TrEMBL record, chain A:
Any GO MF annotation of the entry: actin binding
Reported function: Essential for vacuolar protein sorting. Required for vacuole biogenesis, stability and to maintain vacuole morphology.
Protein family according to the UniProt entry: Belongs to the VPS16 family.
Descriptive protein name: Probable vacuolar protein sorting-associated protein 16 homolog
Alphabetized UniProt keyword annotations: Protein transport, Transport
Segments forming domain Vps16 N-terminal: 7-417
Domain Vps16 C-terminal, chain residue ranges per copy: 519-836
Transport in keyword set: yes
Composition skew (Basic and acidic residues), residue ranges: 810-826, 835-845
UniProt-listed PANTHER family: VACUOLAR PROTEIN SORTING VPS16, VACUOLAR PROTEIN SORTING-ASSOCIATED PROTEIN 16 HOMOLOG
The keyword Transport appears for this protein: yes
Region of interest: Disordered: 809-845
From TrEMBL, chain B:
Organism: Apiotrichum porosum
Record-stated family: Belongs to the STXBP/unc-18/SEC1 family.
GO biological process: vesicle-mediated transport
SUPFAM superfamilies hit by this protein: Sec1/munc18-like (SM) proteins
Ranges of biased composition (kind: Low complexity): 1-31
This protein's name: ATP binding protein
Region named Disordered: 1-34
Entry-linked Gene3D superfamilies: 1.25.40.850, 3.40.50.1910, 3.40.50.2060, Syntaxin Binding Protein 1, Chain A, domain 2
Pfam families with a match to the protein in the record: Sec1
Length: 845, 615
């Protein structure tokens, strides 16, 4: 067995730190000079997009003429897609997880779906940006920052065409030499930050403020922020590389570049600065790549004529015309096992395996020597396996781990299994035909789901499905993407009918076979509809269990009534409103009401009610039209009543009340209500009339019948009060109460006496007593004067309430109510009252 | 102009949460309840708000919907808001804003009126960052209004999912206003959908509730939604069942005057979002302020926990007993002999002082209620109500109601009695009914005409003959209990001095059957707590005779706790009755409701607002 070259063969050191450069792929492409292109590279082993840079002079015949195309390659240089671009020249190409973003210098950006190169969505950054133009732009996973022609920074988040937000004023007067961003995930504030070189200093700008870092080393031709956001690398015009903490408080190193500057062609300024993980800085001049250690030591590589550097969380990808390589600091676990002379238990374990295979007794000795650390050794071997590119070394390390495990009594094999599983996936995607050179740490930094998304954008459905099943993930996303692609491919097939049913069945079968429940059919249906296959879309939608998913598509498909029914079924009133408002806007009033009119079928009744609620608040005319169409007289009348109440003009209110009365009268069972509304109108008119007659000395309008009577009585306008009483047929009882209260309020004791005697009170005389006592202040003397007219039985208590204990006792005595007398004696307050009661009792004896 | 100045938004006068914030923290009560910890929900609400606020970078001005101040105060305090960048707070009301921050955040219910005000304020203070946090979610209608107003592009719409708020260890409330009106009168099912979302969240926190029983048309709808949106989580270890009661199944109960202490406070002084307004001197005798202060009524106040569920008739005695004890305890200071005795006494002192403070508060509140219970109006109303519920001499009660009307008794008292009459006797004869309505409108104003129409639509004030399911329910549900002892009750009917709320009897029919025969005690009840609930089985006819359909989904093991959800609101008496059932030692009950209501708030919500004054 010949082992391949040792893993340490690719290692190199700078200042006692090991770095390794793995040769991953030989490029399949034919790209002579990368410097002719605008380039974007996806994170975590993502693809490479090339677009001819129109601002560079062209050698005739070197490139085809006409509008440039964007070509997307895998990291191994295989062409995945060719995209067309016919807008203004692009200033930025950027890969997100699933799309390629291209931004024009007029502020328009497109999101290309790589799995179907013809599909893209296009958004703009708004008219302000379009007017000023875009000078340059930087992007991160979830958004971008542009520098406008007005030299201000503007942020746009979410890739959905949302509103752009200006950052704090930059105060720049000329275009900066360089700038960079710290994405929200890495910044201290949790929001995006811009670092920009101006004059001799650097500004940091976020949405709230602009901070001048007050530096003197500038201007800077390049700025690069480390992957974790904590360090910055800057190149000064004078030709030195300066590494500093991101708050510019700690100087980490400063290296003179003059040696390289002089050697370089042209201006001598570096083309590119990039971080290799968070550990070292790499600078490129044309095809020359130099890695700097903190003390100024270097490692140099050559890739003529030009090179592309792509920073990753744990290293750097170097892409040249012919190769793709990964440069990184040797991971700790690999170092532990493979570093020459390592005494780490993992290294010992690894050797022990060797001895064991050669049947050497040293194996046992070695294991014995690391016994206490064996578990750690096993873990480290597993870790190290994950960091190797070569399958042979992966196997070897896992085997060592397995070997060590056998000597452990209790060991949880979870990590081992997970690593083996992960490596299987990683090796599969690293295969040159797939061309995703993702490392274990990058895989962990992203997520399995993002790797699957990546595979889907490449239309590698089977691999994606197997990967997600292998990892025990939900396969929804894969299935959805597969179905959409399937429909897109079938688009060319002109035959309808059968093929629809077949396609639908094929999709449903696959979903039921591979997916768990809960796969959304609505999205697939949408794709089908967009592909012009209405019939298929409807068939697929029927499989969708969630109404909220069905409704928007049904609306798009003009299936108005079904959409409304589904919305109602969902119980989500907001969804119903959504449909109603859309229909109200798109249909003629006639059609709109017709649709709802059909709804005498109880199914749509909730929607009709919601329409009323909406119209009541937002569109009174719509409400009136609806009531009219639907013969809803009572509702119409109540609406008039309400509007009358909202009118502060009395005449208007009278009109509303009359209208209400009319609507009520058109309903066969609302005669009473019609009369009441009419009474209301008459009352208000009468009140206005009285106001006029009395030369507006009083305000009556708005009073209730009772209040009006009371007011008239209080103001001494008894005649008019009597008139209201008879016109509104106020019953005797109520009249007596009203008059009693009015007279009491005005302390008109004579009037009260006359009133009490005018006829036999229909409410009795007790209210006279109790009401006078309830006044503030109470009027016991006057109250007592009415007790004699009350029921003999209640007189003692009433007198007592008035504080006339003697009379109370007398009246009890008259009825020979001995218990009452005793009670009074008990209750009477000491002093005169008590003596009065006792007096009466004595007399009785 | 002075008027416009006054109309503008004013600074929030007081921190939204009440003075009691300190009380609640000062005396954490050791809960004896077994069951899920509802504090999780409070934490969820707080977390959601904090996250929503942190989304907005920098300091912000918060403009708050007054209707949310109460509910919000139950989950977060002003200090935490400040901690998350809130610089100033204003009430949401018409008029321009004075903003010194870069951000404005409005926190409001998704209502059109609010959106219009906000649109105005956005236009009048241009160049800022605007965020609207809709509670509990953003609606299409809001979006539409903002679009029509032309500010949709400037405003970020986000949501703050404030759902079931624990207002007590055993009571959760959505604190939604006017739910009964929306559902039953207007046919707007939005609250039902919100309730279903909230119950989904609740199940995420506490585990799936395997059995769901519903009574009433809308309750059934809610049960179906809850079922449909059931989260995929393990079954709850505490709550084995949920019973959803539709307010429209039992209108009688809220129409009766509540006779428990807390119920009386709500009826006659008013409790809003678990807070009551009191004179400042009641909380702090040294206070010189005149403005009323809000105080949170909570069980962390031990005295209140002790008396809140009691029939008001026995509260006075309980208070004076405590007063005497405190006097003894304080007096005890003189009799202290040894140093260790003194140490003990000083240790107790803090507790004594807070007890004294709480005694002062509840004595003051009781003193306010006492005179009300002595008025003729109160007693006449109560007499009419109790006779009607018991089905005794309806004609005489009608005369009583007419008398109340003649005396211009408070409108809602009169109307509640009339509604009760209609519900308990199968409508009022056409002639007297018309006469009543005519007198009613003349006395309280014609603008109540739509209210009367609404009550008719709701089936609350009908012409005889009308169906009266209540009549048939009296017997099978043992609604009338003559011999209940208010001081040491043996049945839930003590909360209305002899009438057992039908809604709670329905819960008993499903979960504590022994109460219907009057044997709910000791071992019987404990056994019932350990068995899976019976549901309405065996009472099907009696339950079916009540309005609305019913449903019963699921099954599963018994865990001893039932969640009772009142759709359309519940009263304090119903909560007290369910607490009474929990205290029997068997099954535990947790209450959830759309909000806490009483007859007055219900009736008011069915009518139009009062007419505007004339110019």
């Amino acid at each position: 067995m010949t082992l391949p070259i040792s893993p340490t063969a690719t290692w190199d050191t700078i200042e006692n730190v090991f770095y390794r450069k793995e040769d991953v792929y030989q490029m399949a492409w034919k790209v002579p000079d990368l410097s002719d292109y605008l380039v974007a590279v996806g994170k975590n082993g993502g693809p490479v997009a090339l677009m001819r840079d129109e601002r560079k002079f062209l050698l005739l015949g070197k490139h085809s003429a006409g509008k440039p195309k964007i070509q997307v390659y895998t990291s191994s240089g295989r062409l995945i897609a060719t995209l067309s671009w016919e807008l203004a020249p692009p200033v930025l190409l950027h890969f997100t997880q699933s799309t390629l973003v291209v931004l024009s210098d007029e502020g328009t950006y497109r999101l290309y779906d790589l799995s179907s190169p013809g599909d893209y969505s296009q958004f703009t950054l708004g008219p302000d940006v379009a007017d000023l133009g875009v000078v340059s732009a930087r992007a991160w996973e979830d958004g971008l920052v542009v520098l406008t022609g007005g030299l201000q920074f503007v942020e746009a988040r979410g890739w959905k065409g949302g509103k752009v937000a200006p950052l704090a004023l930059s105060g720049l007067t000329e275009a900066p030499l360089s700038w960079a961003i710290t994405p929200p995930e890495q910044s201290m504030s949790g929001h995006v930050e811009v670092v920009v070189s101006t004059g001799s200093t650097v500004l940091t700008i976020d949405s709230l403020e602009r901070i001048d870092q007050r530096l003197s080393k500038g201007p800077f031709s390049q700025i690069a922020i480390s992957p974790n956001g904590r360090f910055s690398a800057l190149i000064t015009l004078s030709g030195s590389l300066w590494v500093v903490s991101s708050d510019f408080a700690r100087n980490l190193s400063e290296v003179d570049l003059s040696k390289f500057v002089e050697a370089a062609e042209g201006t001598g300024q570096p083309d590119r600065v990039e971080w290799c993980g968070d550990n070292a800085v790499v600078v490129a001049w044309g095809g020359k790549v130099v890695m700097f250690g903190p003390g100024g030591d270097t490692l140099e590589y050559d890739y003529p004529p030009a090179v592309v550097l792509a920073g990753e969380v744990d290293g750097l990808r170097i892409i040249s015309s012919s190769t793709c390589e990964v440069l990184q600091k040797v991971p700790d676990a690999s170092l532990a096992v493979f570093q020459p002379g390592s005494e780490h238990p993992a290294a010992v374990l690894y050797d022990a395996l060797d001895h064991f295979e050669r049947k050497s007794p040293k194996a046992d000795e070695a294991i014995r020597s690391i016994r206490p650390d064996l578990a750690r050794a096993v873990d480290t071997c597993i870790e190290a396996a994950g960091r190797e590119w070569d399958v042979t070394w992966q196997r070897r390390l896992l085997k060592a781990a397995q070997f060590g495990r056998a000597f452990l009594d209790l060991y949880n094999p979870g990590d081992f299994v997970a690593m083996a599983q992960t490596l299987k996936v990683l090796n599969a995607v690293r295969y040159y035909e797939i061309g995703i050179p993702i490392t274990y740490d990058q895989y962990n930094a992203g997520s399995p789901a993002s790797l699957i998304t990546r595979l889907l954008t490449r239309n590698l459905h089977l691999l994606a499905l197997r990967v997600s099943q292998h990892l025990g993930l939900r396969s929804d996303a894969v299935l959805k993407h597969w179905a959409a692609a399937r429909i897109a491919r079938a688009k060319s097939d002109p035959r309808d009918g059968d093929s629809n049913t077949q396609l639908c069945e094929a999709i449903v079968d696959k979903f039921e076979q591979e997916g768990e429940k809960g796969v959304s059919y609505a999205e697939i249906a949408k794709k089908a509809w967009e592909a012009g296959r209405v019939r298929l879309a409807t068939m697929l939608l029927d499989h969708e269990p969630r109404a909220a998913e069905q409704v928007p598509l049904l609306l798009q498909m003009k299936q108005d009534k079904i959409a409304l029914e589904k919305a109602v079924d969902s119980g989500d009133t907001d969804l119903v409103y959504h449909v109603l408002l859309r229909l109200h806007a798109s249909l003629s009033p006639g059609d709109f009401f017709h649709l709802l009119d059909d709804s005498i079928s109880p199914q749509l009744a909730p929607a009709v009610r919601l329409l009323q609620i909406y119209a009541r608040e937002n569109d009174r005319q719509l409400l009136r039209d609806f009531y009219y169409q639907d013969d809803r007289r009572t509702e119409n009348a109540c609406l008039e009543m309400e509007e009358g109440g909202n009118s502060s003009n009395p005449e208007e209110r009278v009109e509303h009340l009359k209208a209400a009365s009319k609507f009520f009268s058109e309903h066969k069972d609302r005669g009473f209500e019609a009369k009441m509304a009419d009474d209301a109108a008459r009352l208000l008119q009468l009140e206005l009339q009285y106001e006029r007659e009395l030369e507006h000395k009083f305000i009556f309008a708005g009073l209730t019948v009772d209040d009006l009577i009371t007011r008239l009585l209080v103001e001494g306008l008894g005649k008019r009060a009597e008139h209201v009483r008879s016109a509104w047929k106020v019953p005797d009882k109520r009249w007596w109460w009203l008059k009693l209260k009015a007279l009491a309020t005005t302390h008109n004791w004579d009037g009260l006496e006359i009133f009490a005697k005018s006829k036999k009170s229909p409410i009795g005389y007790e209210p006279f007593v109790t009401h006078l006592l309830a006044l503030t202040p109470p009027q016991p003397t006057y109250a007592a004067s009415f007790v004699a007219r009350c029921d003999a039985k209640s007189r003692p208590d009433l007198y007592a309430l008035c504080g006339q204990w003697g009379k109370a006792a007398e009246s009890a005595k008259e009825r020979n109510d001995k218990p009452k007398l005793d009670e009074l004696k008990r209750r009477a307050p000491p002093g005169l009252p008590q003596r009065e009661v006792e007096e009466v009792i004595r007399r009785q004896k | 102009m002075a008027t416009t100045a006054a109309a503008g938004p004013s600074r929030l006068p007081l921190p939204a949460p009440s003075s009691s914030a300190s009380d609640t923290t000062a005396a954490p009560q050791a809960t004896e309840r077994i069951g899920p910890d509802v504090g999780v929900l409070r934490e969820l609400g707080k977390q959601a708000l904090v996250e929503a606020l942190n989304e907005v970078q920098g300091s912000k001005t918060l403009v708050l919907d007054p209707a949310l101040a109460g509910p919000l105060g139950l989950v977060i305090d002003v200090a935490s808001l400040k901690h998350h960048g809130v610089d100033k707070m204003f009430w949401l009301e018409p008029g321009p804003l004075s903003v010194q921050t870069r951000n404005v955040v409005w926190l409001c219910r998704p209502k059109r009126a609010h959106m219009l005000v906000i649109a105005d304020q956005v236009r009048s203070s241009p160049g800022l960052q605007y965020t609207i946090l809709c509670v509990p979610r953003v609606t299409e209608l809001c979006r539409r209004v903002l679009e029509d107003e032309g500010v949709a592009g400037d405003v970020t719409l986000a949501e703050f999912k404030l759902e079931l708020i624990p207002i007590e260890d055993d009571v959760l409330s959505l604190e939604l206003d006017d739910v009964a009106r929306d559902i039953y009168l207007r046919g707007d099912d939005t609250p039902i959908y919100y309730a279903s979302l909230a119950l989904t969240t609740l199940q995420r926190a506490f585990g799936r509730i395997p059995r769901v029983i519903a009574k009433g048309e809308h309750a059934k709808k809610l049960a179906a939604l809850v079922q449909k949106n059931r989260p995929e989580v393990d079954p709850s270890e505490h709550i084995d069942s949920m019973i959803i009661i539709d307010r429209s199944v039992d209108w009688v109960t809220p129409m009766c005057t509540q006779l428990t202490y807390e119920g009386m406070l709500d009826e006659f002084i008013g409790i809003k979002n678990a807070h009551i307004e009191v004179d400042p001197q009641v909380l702090d005798p040294a206070s010189t302020q005149t403005k009323k202060r809000k105080h949170q009524l909570a069980s962390s106040d031990k005295l209140f926990a002790d008396i809140r569920d009691l029939n008001f008739a026995v509260v006075g005695a309980r208070l004076s007993k405590l007063a005497r004890r405190l006097e003894g305890d304080f007096g005890g200071a003189k009799a202290l002999k040894s140093v260790s005795q003194m140490k003990d006494f000083v240790g107790k002192l803090g507790g004594l002082q807070s007890e004294q403070q709480s005694l002062r508060l509840h004595t003051a509140l009781t003193e306010k209620l006492m005179p009300i219970t002595r008025t003729e109006e109160f007693n006449k109303t109560l007499e009419a109500q109790q006779n009607l519920v018991a089905g005794y001499d309806p004609n005489a009660q009608l005369a009583l109601i007419e008398d109340l009307l003649c005396q211009q008794a408070p409108m809602s008292a009169v109307l509640r009695s009339a509604v009760l009459m209609s519900l308990t006797t199968g409508g009022i004869k056409p002639k007297p009914l018309e006469a009543f309505k005519r007198d009613f409108l003349q006395t309280y104003g014609y603008h109540h005409l739509p209210l009367l129409v609404a009550l008719q639509d709701l089936g609350l004030l009908l012409k005889a003959p009308s169906p009266a399911p209540f009549v048939g329910a009296r017997k099978p549900f043992r609604l009338i209990v003559d011999d209940v002892d208010d001081a040491s009750p043996n049945d839930i009917s003590y909360v209305y001095s002899g009438y057992a709320p039908l809604s709670v009897r329905l819960v008993q029919a499903a979960t504590q059957r022994s109460a219907l025969t009057g044997d709910a005690k000791g071992d019987v009840v404990r056994m019932e707590g350990k068995r899976p609930i019976t549901g309405f089985k065996g009472m099907d006819d009696a339950v079916a005779a009540l309005p609305g359909a019913s449903s019963d989904i699921g099954g599963g093991k018994a865990h001893g706790t039932t969640l009772v959800f009142f759709l359309g609101g519940c009263t304090y008496t119903e909560i007290s009755a369910l607490r009474f059932m929990s205290k029997l030692g068997g099954r535990q009950y947790m209450v959830a409701t759309s909000s806490i209501v009483n007859g007055n708030t219900l009736i008011e919500s069915f009518g139009d607002p009062a007419p505007v004054p004339f110019q």
